[in-house]
Amino acid sequence: MAIITVSRGRFSGGRAIAECLGRKLGYRCIDRAMLVQRAATRRVSEYDLLAALESPPAFPGRFNHTRYIYLALIQAGLTGDVRTGRAIYHGLAGHLLLKGAPGLLRLRIIAPMDYRIRMARDRLRPGRSEVIAHIEAMDRDRRRWTQFLYGVDWGEPSL
User: Fold this and answer.
1) Domain containing 52: what range?
2) What is the pTM of this model?
3) pLDDT of residue 96
4) Within 13 A of 49's CA, how many CA atoms are on the CB side?
5) How far is the C-alpha of 159 from the C-alpha of 156, rounded, in Å?
6) What does 108-130 look like in DSSP terms, one character per residue?
7) Residues 67/52, Cβ–Cβ less than 8 Å
8) Does any domain span residue 158?
9) pLDDT per residue over 101-150, tens digit each?
């Protein structure tokens, strides 16, 4: 009844690894888009949930009640999806959303920047400097989000 979370930076190959592992083990793969779709309600759209997850708070010290509600919806959706085990979640902060869950294996994929740049350029087709700026912005936003929500460094290997 294990649950596996795959934490990774953008364009690190984590999605492909999670999907391959899921096929090999016969586990369901769950990603952020699936969670957002399930967590959306009549009052909270998928767009609002994604926007809240994509951009970290502008003022980290400022309490933002709406973001916590959105996070609770996402966390409830993820908890429901993995309650029977045999699931792999790859997406934003799964290792933190499920912290303390029994039978949890947390994987962290760390890809060299050159690999990430190559993957981003293959997918997005921009120049090298634009790709580097995009990857660094995504990493910075994830770092700010996890610091804001959990008080931890997103890149900390012990997580």
Assistant:
1) 3-150
2) 0.73
3) 77
4) 24
5) 6
6) EE---HHHHHHHHHHHH---HHH
7) yes
8) no
9) 788 888 888 889 999 988 888 887 778 888 888 888 888 887 887 777 77
The encoded tokens of residue 52 equal: 């809240």
Name the H helices within 4-155: 14-25, 32-39, 46-54, 65-82, 94-97, 113-124, 128-150
Flag whether 60 is in a domain. yes
Reduced to 3 states (helix: H, G, I; strand: E, B; else coil), residue 55 is coil
Q: Which residues pair with 104 in a beta bridge?
A: 3
Q: Is residue 155 included in any domain, yes or no?
A: no
Domain with residue 49: its CATH number is 3.40.50.300
- Total count of domains within the chain: 1
**CB within 8 Å of 137: residues ≥ 6 apart:** none
**DSSP state letter for 26:** T
Collapse the DSSP code of 156 into the 3-class scheme (helix H, G, I; strand E, B; otherwise coil) and give the result: coil
